Amino acid sequence: MALVASLAAQRPALKAPRGPAEKGMPRAGKKDRIPRTPVDRFNRMPPEDRQKALEKLPPERRKRLEDQLNQYNHLTPEQRRQERLRYQAFNQQFPPDKQNQARRLFRQFGELPAERQGSLRKEFESLRALPDTERRARINSDEFRSKYDSHEQKILRDLSGLVSK
Amino acid sequence: MKCPIETQENAELLLSYSARRLNPESTAILEAHMELCPACQEFRDGQRALWEALDQWEARPVSADFDRRLYRRIEEQDRMGWWARTFGSMRPVFLRPALPLAAMACLVLVAGFIIDEPRQTVVPTAEVPQVVREVEQVERTLEDLEMLRQFNLVAPVSNSDLSRS
Q: Can you give the pTM of this predicted structure?
């Protein structure tokens, strides 16, 4: 009897999460859902279709893509959500010509030696935080000109131009 | 990228590429696409053969008295009536040196028709462009994600910002 009574007492507590309290919780509704990226769609393809698509690639390119996919798939759900948010924002905030410009600049950046990439990244971050007039002043300063060669200056100038209001 | 042959949007890219007039960035993008696209590969191979033939073609050395004979012939042409001037150039003797050039011009024209009417001449299998598109889209998305990881180009966004747009 005591056992039956205790089980009966526990039942409402077990059901509680499905009750009104849950309705009030902030759940990701349909309209708040972040659209999936082409990478997510690719990941959701049947394995044999994915394999078929990858087989079309030359070995070196296939390896690079597999490595990148692997890196993406090892992100935590929260990191992946952030990536999707950034990707969607990029597509929404940048018209296609600006997107292509950004990609072009990033490719040029990628060709720089690793140690130069680090300083350019830092410089971009500080330029990004500056108001327009200060940013222009910084780009025209002697220190900026002596620190970066003309190619690096152009990359930074164009990249910061992309994010200026 | 969109297949230049399939979409007709970037058909001139293929011709510029074949003529080695394309900038390095576009060349890299097009070559990456060509690795996957049989139609573009076929076009490239045809154009390559044509350009190799052009490279190997050497004009016969001009004889020492070429100029003298040329000017004499021009004077003779000037003395001829309009009938002879119009149809005189059709004589076989005048056609012979122009034959290799005419043949190459025909090849270039044929290449142009291939671009204008790709569905009638180059018919890749239906599934390949779809797979190619998907893989290229995944590659580009992963590159975009890498770029956005390294450079914070986008203004902070929330899910509700995304759903509003």
A: 0.58
